[in-house]
Amino acid sequence: MSASDAHRTIETVWRMEAPRLIAGLARIVRDVGRAEELAQDALVVALKQWPEEGVPRNPGAWLMQAAKHRAIDSLRRDRLLARKHQELGHDIETDGNGAPDLDAALDDDVGDDLLRLVFTACHPVLSTEARLALTLKLLGGLTTEEIARAFLVPEPTMAQRIVRAKKALSDAKVPFEVPHGAELTERLSSVLEVVYLIFNEGYAATAGNDWVRPALCEEALRLGRILAGLSPQEPEVHGLVALMELQASRLRARIGPDGEPVLLLDQNRARWDHLLIGRGLKALERAQSLQGQISRDDAPGALPGPYLLQAALAACHARARTAAETDWARIAALYGVLARVSPSPVVELNRAVAVSMAEGPAAGLVLVEALMSEPALKRYHLLPAVHGDLLAKLGRHSEAQAAFTLGAELTKNQRERELMLARAQTAREAAARDGLDHSCSD
């Protein structure tokens, strides 16, 4: 195997094994930052040895063994061994030489270790931006350069953000554990929010020249699937996975040949990924079954969570063979429930769109114009975009032109800006024709 082939193999193995390595090491050293350094030390050894000696038959196990040796050396070098025995108690058995049995400690409860790492990386002590960066670094296996490029910030800025996040966890002495009771529910919401934010940034980029970033969607899906495997009884986890699977099924159809946005009703549904749709519908069925158990056993009549509801909304689109077959009445009703579960102006805006499709643009316009003074939507580019669309459908083209122009000014995404400017131009031309028609009739 050539050196370049070995390096590609190492990169692939690292992406697959890094979360497991870091999670196992973090349980031993009780410090996420140190655990990552130890795992990367093992990677450095692989980069030196594998191109010369060949890739081992079980590269993941090789990296784990190398990481274990680094962990032992680190504990001895820093004179932490006695303190670690006291801190970990029965978690680590010692061998005859008084060294910790890291083989047993790292090989046990791998799933639990990963779950601990997820909850640690998404701890509320960190800002949302820091949680996103640290999750992609520790669990996504992305490099700092890749994360910086995804969120359009300089690499040194992202590196500092990640370093500060790890230091904040260490300074706050955040325990490397899965929380319990009410804290578990609260922290799970934070974990799901981080994964969903990563997916959303890939599905509809907030800035830059690309409207979609499929790599981020893939990472979020991978993290969601891991989380579903580690928390099999949580309906919202399966709801989020279902939502992401169903949304991701449309990625290929969301952009045209030159990278331009293609809106939902204009998409070629033959380009939708029906394997992902099938997986999404199956995950939704699982979430709804679990939610039904909760409603029957614990809280009769309990409302489903926001991710499950959004997955049900996405399923309405996935099941429609054509845009005309979309059940907009059901979508509007689901948005009504979502507004009760997770009220926000953005949900109300989406509900207005659904109402406009179910009952006509005039009905939707009433709801949209009620949101025009909403402070939270003042700089939200999709509000004037939706407003412009409804105005255009009602033949109020001059007003639609102004709305699309405002939306173009507010968005930070170049592709979206081009789309809105094109729609503004179409509205301007329609307004000019209207003026000409009036002039001729006079």
UniProtKB/TrEMBL annotation:
Every RNA polymerase sigma-70 region domain range: 16-79
GO molecular function (one): DNA binding
Residue intervals of the DUF6596 domain: 187-287
InterPro entries xref list: DUF6596 (IPR046531), RNA_pol_sigma70_r2 (IPR007627), RNA_pol_sigma70_r4_t2 (IPR013249), RNA_pol_sigma_r2 (IPR013325), RNA_pol_sigma_r3/r4-like (IPR013324), WH-like_DNA-bd_sf (IPR036388)
Chain ranges of the RNA polymerase sigma factor 70 region 4 type domain: 119-169
Biological process, per Gene Ontology: DNA-templated transcription initiation
Superkingdom of the source species: Bacteria
Gene3D superfamilies, alphabetized: 1.10.1740.10, Winged helix-like DNA-binding domain superfamily/Winged helix DNA-binding domain (1.10.10.10)
Cross-referenced PANTHER family: BLL0085 PROTEIN (PTHR47756:SF1), BLL6612 PROTEIN-RELATED (PTHR47756)
Name of the protein in question: RNA polymerase, sigma subunit, ECF family
